[in-house]
Write a structure and sequence with these properties.
Distance between the termini: 46 Å
Radius of gyration: 23 Å
Shape: globular
Number of strands: 0
Largest sheet: none
Structural class: mainly alpha
Order of helices and strands: HHHHHHHH
Strand content: under 5%
């Protein structure tokens, strides 16, 4: 049951990651357009320039939740890396309950009035030709932290499964995938495929 719950939360976080990656592509195209127009055609658009940091805000704010799922946030690894999987899982579970969930809920709830105020005042860019509806990008603040709450619950369940010994801590995250790839490369680094057809493998 817990493993199914974990996979469900992971799929939810992966969907956020895929969407963030798509927005990243849009931002790259946007920046490319701005650079080409500015340096080759000596023109530009205030709205397109502002769209850059709007898209960047989407990537950063929504990426918080996906990064937690991949266990990619900055931590002090000097001691943590020397601990057993159970102790790591215990620290992660305590951290989720004591730090992540309260802070995420606090920021998510307290930022809602700012979004409402921005919507009510029809806040827009102060520059001529800039983007309107600034409340849209501001609404990502509470949304991102509520998504973080959801992925923090999934992160807790994942570490609970590790603590109960249902799977290894690195089995489902990006670090584990990288380590598995390294191991596979080390196992096959001396294996040379015969490209001349002489039937010799080294």
């Amino acid at each position: 049951m817990l493993l199914k719950l974990e996979k469900g939360f992971d799929k939810f976080a992966d969907a956020i990651g895929y969407f963030t990656a798509f927005v990243m592509v849009l931002m790259i195209l946007n920046v490319t357009y701005d650079v080409v127009m500015r340096y080759f055609f000596n023109t530009g658009s205030i709205a397109m320039q502002e769209l850059e940091w709007h898209l960047f805000s989407v990537i950063i704010l929504l990426g918080i939740a996906y990064t937690l799922k991949e266990d990619g946030h900055v931590r002090v690894d000097l001691i943590y890396d020397t601990l057993t999987n159970k102790k790591k899982a215990k620290i992660n579970m305590i951290g989720s309950i004591v730090f992540i969930l309260p802070v995420a809920l606090l920021i998510g709830i307290e930022s809602i009035p700012y979004v409402i105020e921005s919507f009510a005042s029809n806040e827009k860019s102060g520059d001529p030709g800039g983007l309107e509806y600034r409340w849209i990008v501001k609404s990502l603040i509470p949304l991102s932290f509520f998504l973080l709450v959801v992925t923090a619950i999934g992160f807790f369940i994942k570490n609970l499964n590790v603590y109960k010994g249902l799977h290894d801590s690195s089995e489902y995250n990006l670090k584990g995938e990288i380590e598995n790839l390294k191991n596979e490369l080390n196992q096959h680094k001396h294996h040379v495929v015969d490209m001349d057809g002489k039937g010799e493998n080294k």
